[in-house]
């Protein structure tokens, strides 16, 4: 029953986000393919464009929370937990931070629910937003698993963000205190185009 309730909630959220964008006038028909679940915005900032030698692999809504920890002087973004959804509201992947032995700070990580493919990224470009977490372009520093899923991810865009900000004040906060801030965003995944072989259309990450 709990799983069914969560699936229903995610489907409603996916529908709500699509309706909200339509009512707000956001342009979401800039980049469409028959194998992509969601069309990308037509006004993506130039700073967030991946290199020309890449191809869109998939674009999916995500909903969850950004986690902030107070270190005694400021709120630090220490984790994230969000499910990626396909157009039917079905969970197809999860997003979180991971620590790697050769890195001193956690990095964003995406993993498929369908197989063991995953990618770990670091920030390449940031575009601040007035009332939500910033838009991002991230570059993959590690990818493994099925090349038809996250195994060939080269870049990730975080677009159309909503909420997710830390507390606007540190008043009464104590060191080590954790704050979870709900957010949603559209994540677009790109792979590098191979020139040594024929490179046909990319299958969907949610296929």
Q: Could you walk me through the main structural features you see in this protein, from its secondary elements to its overall organization?
A:
There is one protein chain. The protein has 207 residues and is mainly beta. 11% of the residues lie in helices and 43% in strands. It is built from one helix and eight strands; from the N terminus they run H-E-E-E-E-E-E-E-E. The chain has an eight-stranded antiparallel beta barrel. A hairpin with an 8-residue loop joins strand 6 (135-144) and strand 7 (153-163). The longest helix has 23 residues, at 2-24. The two termini are 25 Å apart. Residues 2-30 have low confidence and may be disordered.
First CA to last CA: what distance? Answer: 25 Å
Whole-angstrom Rg? 17 Å
Helix content bin = 10-25%
User: What strand order characterises the main sheet?
Assistant: 1-2-3-4-5-6-7-8
Low-pLDDT sequence parts:
2-30
Shape: globular
What's the helix count? Answer: 1
DSSP strand (E) fraction? 35-45%
* Integer average pLDDT: 81
Report the oligomer: single chain
The major pleated sheet works out as: 8 strands, antiparallel, barrel
Question: Which class do the helix and strand fractions yield?
Answer: mainly beta
SSE sequence, one letter per element? HEEEEEEEE
**Total DSSP E strands:** 8
